[in-house]
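Sample log: Transport permease protein.
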Amino acid sequence: MSAIASGELTTPGLGGGLRDIRQSGFLLKLLVRKELKVRYRGSVLGLLWSYVKPGVQFIVFYVALGVFLGLERSARNPEGLSNYAVYLFSGIVLINFFTEALGNAARSIVNNGNLIKKIYLPRELFPVASVWVSAVHFFPQLVVLVIGCVLAGWHPNLIQLLAAVAGFVIVALLATGLGLLFGAANVYFRDSENLVDMLLMVATWASPVMYAWSMVHDKLGAGWFAVYQANPITIGVELFHYAFWFPTTDGSVAMPPNLFSLWLFVGLGVAVAILLLGQFTFRRLEGRFAQEL
């Protein structure tokens, strides 16, 4: 009433963006619980699938790459990676979080179309809830990773623990920003889902999850390697390697140069920029979500 009296009009269907998420914590929790219940409805294993799927994925990659292709260091292959199992699984845990978060966030608006057409609530809640659901699946895998690292002689210092937090934050911000961008675009162009699927396939291999960064440096040279290293997912994976894998080695392995003095800030900057771009695009398009759905 005060807005009408003062002559101010607001555009229907538009909110305050991500700022509204802080005021809608209860709704966010409800959406996360709903997503988890719907996903595991009728499932025998339920949340245990968070252990089974990455476990099978790890075994396949470890046998194919570590054993058959010789990436695991051994007496016959001294040039391989020390504790390749820890190296591999620490990357898989983070990349699985990204792929699940972005894949679900990109479909979240369309999948909740019936709810969006009936009531108004901050639409950013749906992509953000998808990222939170992925985080719920991420932490059981993280527990398994920590147990494996401890068995391998893991003794991290504070900087290494902070590196793990920084890596997760970078990837979470990136997934949220891209989720907002593609979630909004998918309402108007359903081809966005196929584009996201291709992007996720490339992301798994375009970051040093299953191979060493030095292999890329040797093949591409310093110039193109800098382009490769600017990928926030690459930076997040390397921070995870530094946090979980590096302390289990003898310390003779080399991490990417300038990881903390340069690339950490590049990763945060790119992730925040994509988050802002995703929020801007989302707010420009959300006004017609109900009509398009």
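Observation: Residues 1-7 have pLDDT under 50 and may be disordered.
Observation: Residues 158-188 form the longest helix (31 residues).
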